[in-house]
Amino acid sequence: MQTVIIIDSCSDLPFEYVKQHDIPVVNFTFHFKGNDYTDDLGQTISYKDFYDAIRNGETPTTSQVNAQTYTDMFRKYALEGKSIIYLCFSSALSGSYNNSLLARDMITEEFPEADITIIDTKSASLGEGLLVYHAIDMLEKGASREEIIDWVEENKLKLHHWFTVEDLGHLKRGGRLSGTAAFVGSILDIKPVLNVDDEGRLIPRIKVKGRKKALRTLIEKMEENIINPEQQVVAISHGDSPDDADYLAELIRSKFPVKDIIINSIGPVIGSHSGPGTIALFFFGKNR
User: Could you tell me the fold of the domain covering 158-284?
Assistant: First the structure.
């Protein structure tokens, strides 16, 4: 049975990569400037236009993927007789994972022979994207369904997510920071450094003063935790901060012999909650 890997738009992979590898995408949605939009990896609304609107006071909201959307996607490939692997955005950050499970149950009731595996990646943005990157590489090199599933499950909690934000107000609105902490931090130019834990939750870890120090702290975390850098493709995602992303990439290349660095924008679903100026770094270590 041929295998298909399905992803969602919160993986924040470059549109060109997704198109080149013909990867099916489950699209999250967001409400923006009075209209509902599909997160189509920057094709309808450019990332820059999206973040500029937030800078000018726009407050987008997001929606989880409903069970019907998943059902339609899974049915398409079940009808083609394909074995489905869906790599899902962290269940701790969205109820979409639970809706995908409901959809799988509906499809397997309709098609008892359907083979659908859903993996909660416990990951977000290009953390999720790196798991997809390796899974697609394995698929294209002829790995079996079981080998791909086993690799993702074995490695997903080795994937580090370290990031910092520019505007603390977005974390406050998302409940990740108290109003007092956000106010004081903004006055004192305090920048939090956060990561994603084993449950897939965003956890504030360190407070530093100033943007450059926050970026250097991301590198320090990489120095402390990365294993076998010469074998790794690492990733950087950003909220319309290409210069800072390039600066971080230069620091990485000066310190680590990595194979490659993927850089891409944070999409509108995650970006609605993290805001402009977010910088995130992703790599593999022994554990998170």
Answer: Hypothetical Protein Tm841; Chain: A;domain 3 (3.30.1180)
